[in-house]
Amino acid sequence: MSVEKQLIVFDFDWSMADQDTDRWIFEVLAPDLRRKMKKLKEEIQWTDLVAQSLREAHSRGIKRSQIEHSLRIMPFHPAMVRGVTNLKAGGKTTFLCLSNSNSVFISTILNDKSLETLFTEIITNPAEWEGELLKLRRRVDPNGPQHDCKVGCSPNMCKGKYCEELTAFLERHGKDFDRVVYVGDGSNDFCPILRLRSQDIVFCRANRGLQKRIEREAEKEGLTCQIQYWAGAWEVEEMFGKL
Ligand SMILES: [Mg+2]
Ligand SMILES: [Zn+2]
């Protein structure tokens, strides 16, 4: 198949990056808050819990510069930087980020890796600095209409077909991609890959939530795309080289 135009969709935590931003910054700066989040995560919606923990961090004097520094030192494989940079230079690839992290965490890290112009769009939870406090909101406002995803996405965001993040992107940028490649690891990446066609591929990180859902639910939900597994970012670089 000749591919002239392709779209790479990236999840961020544990997919593009080798860690989870929401958890990492607290592990670095306030492990007791990280422990508290682990205890509260069944009771409080995750994005709200991160927002609340950021307020607590602020109230005990943790500074913007400390949070930014912790993001810059978060594990991020050099092979991932090389892989996406080379693919972008090839000229036929558009990049989209679909993430449950937030706009500030992602842009801080991308700037540090000189990848700030990689993505055409970054679809994630909105955040902004207000002095030393990072204010974070759910992408789907809890007071407005909620998405009706039936595949188990969390209330703040559905990456897949039901609240149409990926569908809406394809409407905005033309649907004529010869191939879509989705790089993901988590259980909430299952919904968007149900949108993919038989010529599309999921690059699934092995032994995490997405693989488990594929194994259990692919047949029932009618997953039609191809699946390739990887463990380290150096393998993603290799897989990109064959696209
Ligand atoms: Mg992830
Ligand atoms: Zn969904």
Automatic annotation (TrEMBL):
Which is an annotated GO molecular function term of this record?
A: metal ion binding
Does the record carry Magnesium as a key word?
yes
InterPro entries assigned to the protein according to its UniProt record, in alphabetical order:
HAD-like_sf, HAD_hydro_PyrdxlP_Pase-like, HAD_sf, Pase_PHOSPHO-typ
| UniProt keywords, alphabetically | Hydrolase, Magnesium, Metal-binding
Which residues are the active-site ones?
Answer: 11 (nucleophile), 13 (proton donor)
What residues bind Mg(2+), as annotated?
11, 13, 185
Q: Which domain of life is it from?
A: Eukaryota
Enumerate the cofactors the protein uses: Mg(2+)
The yes or no answer to whether the keyword Magnesium is present is yes
Q: Name one Pfam family in it.
A: Put_Phosphatase
- This protein is called Phosphatase phospho-type
Q: Which organism is it from?
A: Leucocoprinus leucothites
